[in-house]
Amino acid sequence: MKDLVQSGTSFLKEFQKFAVKGNVMDMAIGVVIGTAFGKIVSSLVADVIMPLIGLCVGNIDLKDLAITLKDKTDDAPGIVLTYGVFLQNVLDFIIIAFAIFIFIKLIINLKSKVIHEEKVEAAPVPEDVKLLSEIRDLLKEKNK
Question: Which of 8, 15, 28, 113 sits a CA distance of 20 to 30 A from 47?
Answer without folding.
Answer: 28
